[in-house]
Amino acid sequence: ATRRLKMSERAQQQLDLHFPGYPAEWLWRRKTNDGLTTLPRTLPLVMQAVDAQSKGQPAGHALFCLWARSPDHPLVTIENPATFASEAGFSGERAVDTWRRRMKRLRELNLIQSKAGPAGDFHFVLLLNPNVEMEWMRVSGLVQDGLYGRFLDRLIEVGGYGELEMIRVRWQEARAAQEATQLPAGTTGTAGDVGAGQASKVPALPPGAPDGSTPVPNGAGE
User: Fold this and answer.
1) What are the pLDDT digits (tens) for 126-168?
2) Residues 26 and 117 sit within 8 Å (Cβ to Cβ)
3) I want to staple 113 with a disulfide (CB 3.0 to 4.6 A). Which of 14, 50, 126, 136 is the partner?
4) Long-range contacts of range 30-38, CB-CB < 8 Å, 24 or more positions apart?
């Protein structure tokens, strides 16, 4: 049987054809070069959605800088906000303040969660799944059809559509539980969700409002 070539193998064939013998020193390969992390392939589209919802103060590049600084782990520790502000393109006396405003917008859009520490309000930053958060923005009316359609095409292409299916089911379960118990939208789940003693630690869906301030999006899972 003929084996289907992997994406990297197809790219190598094209490289050999169009750029034969190109000096290796000019090429960056993740298996041989240092300084890598793992990024969601849909991130450029998510950044566009973020910028569209933060006009005048686009926060998409600040999100990219967080992912680029992540230790291949969703938790990023920010000990020097000035470094992150500089990498996000901000300079001057108010660079850190400008960066913090972008971070607040990312938090409002549920792309990150944060905890205060020695370096300020954003000392500990939790990077949330941008695919799931894109879906949350969609059902919240914050993403236009054209961009969402391109996002779906790309997500299906990279094999990540199941993430949306899982969060839609979770939203349906959360809404059913809220209706059954007549709890206000945003209340945390029951002990049966994650085991006794852990229920209070599980945020209502979508993540970003463990205090109940964000309701389950209308239409989620429909």
Assistant:
1) 999 999 999 999 999 999 999 999 999 999 999 999 999 999 9
2) no
3) 126
4) 37/67, 37/68, 37/69, 37/70, 37/71, 37/72, 38/72
Element (H, E) at 126: strand 120-127
Backbone dihedral angles phi then psi of residue 112, each to the nearest 5 degrees: -140, 160
Cβ proximity of 183 and 209 under 8 Å: no
CA gap 4, 25 in Å, rounded: 30
Block residue for tokens 């292409």: 157
Cα–Cα distance for residue pair 64/87, rounded to 1 Å: 10
Name the nearest CA neighbour of 206 among 149, 139, 118, 120: 139
This prediction has a pTM of 0.79
pLDDT in tens, 31-65: 899 999 999 999 999 999 999 998 889 999 999 99
